[in-house]
Each structure stands twice: as C-alpha cells, then as structure tokens.
Amino acid sequence: MNQKTIITCPTCKKTSVWDTQNAFRPFCSERCKLIDLGDWASEKHRVAGDPVSNQDEDDTNQD
To answer: Hey, which of 12, 22, 24, 46 has its CA 20 to 30 A from 39?
Structure first.
C-alpha cells in the first residue's frame, strides 16, 4: 500500500509525485512556484469575495 500520489502542477500542468522529497509541492519546480507567486503579486489571482472598504478612509472622506 505504498502507492504514490501523482499530482498535476497548477502552473505548467506537468505531473509530479506528492512527496516530502518534492520541496516545491504542489508545484513541480521552484520556477513554477515563483511564477505562481508572481501571479498573486500582480493580482492575476484573487480570492473571491466582496470588496473590503477601509473604515479609516471612509471617515476622512466625510469632512
């Protein structure tokens, strides 16, 4: 029952093994991990939800 879990890299779609020896999981490589991080930083990826209003900004705009 030592079956390896095969995953698909979210960035390049290459398959790799989900294992402690893969330090970049769920990605296949450091390159794919950094590409994904860059996409989050440039707001290509977003968490769904309603926009958050900044209460401090709202208070200063009422003057």
So the answer is: 22
